[in-house]
DNA sequence: TTTCTAACA
DNA sequence: TGTTAGTA
């Protein structure tokens, strides 16, 4: 059967995540430590990076190159998430003929 | 693979 | 402050 995969459960080991993102192994671990990213874990405790995580890593990579430090990036990611949520609410409100 | 530590820029 | 290398 066709195994259904979600962008939220793409499974990458940290080594391939580092390879694809162009970052170092230690850096990825540091990012998680700083709270910039939160990959899921297997029972054994190994990190599993999803497709979403990969996009997030690329995003982080861009911000790093922009000159932001990890704390700053953390704030940007939080604000972007909040902004996306607010936009979704606004779109929903506009689509509702309530009035 | 994980974590921690130390050194470097 | 963030990355890299070596370790158990």
TrEMBL record:
Report domain HTH merR-type positions.
11-79
> Which of UniProt's keywords are assigned here?
DNA-binding
The record, for Pfam families, names: MerR_1
| Matching SUPFAM superfamilies | Putative DNA-binding domain
Q: Supply the SMART domains for this chain.
A: HTH_MERR
Q: Quote the PANTHER family the UniProt record gives.
A: HTH-TYPE TRANSCRIPTIONAL REGULATOR YFMP, REDOX-CYCLING DRUG-SENSING TRANSCRIPTIONAL ACTIVATOR SOXR
Q: Name one GO molecular function term.
A: DNA-binding transcription factor activity
Q: What organism is this sequence from?
A: Sinomonas humi
Put simply, this protein is called MerR family transcriptional regulator
């Amino acid at each position: 059967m066709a195994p259904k995969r979600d962008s939220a459960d793409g499974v990458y080991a940290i080594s391939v995540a580092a390879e694809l993102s162009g970052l170092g192994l230690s850096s990825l671990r540091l990012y998680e430590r700083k709270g910039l990213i939160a990959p899921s874990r297997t029972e054994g405790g190994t990190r599993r990076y999803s497709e979403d995580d990969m996009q997030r890593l690329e995003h982080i990579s861009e911000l790093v190159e922009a000159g932001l430090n990890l704390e700053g990036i953390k704030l940007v990611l939080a604000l972007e998430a909040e902004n996306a949520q607010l936009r979704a609410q606004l779109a929903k409100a506009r689509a509702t003929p309530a009035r």
